[in-house]
Design a protein that fits this description.
single chain, about 80 residues, mainly beta, four-stranded antiparallel β-sheet
Length: about 80
């Protein structure tokens, strides 16, 4: 079964229009695993400081560093 998931934090961030245009990503949950897909055209998504290839699906593991444009966060599995 496939479902969509989102993540966030208690912190509030204000994104500019430019940020929103760059931050096109999809986080998916399949089985017991989370996956990240970069949907943007500018390769601004990184997993553990490795740039993601547009359209490719990458498994995200607990406590991995994600970077979306200028924003960094840790993926924490609930």
């Amino acid at each position: 079964m496939k479902s969509q998931n989102s993540f966030g934090s208690k912190d509030k961030y204000t994104l500019t229009k430019d940020d929103k245009d760059k931050l096109l990503n999809y986080i998916d949950f399949e089985g017991n695993k989370y996956y990240l897909t970069d949907l943007s055209n500018n390769n601004s998504t990184y997993l553990e400081n490795r740039p993601l290839i547009r359209g490719e699906k990458y498994e995200i593991k607990n406590n991995q560093l994600l970077r979306f444009g200028n924003y960094e966060c840790r993926f924490i599995k609930a």
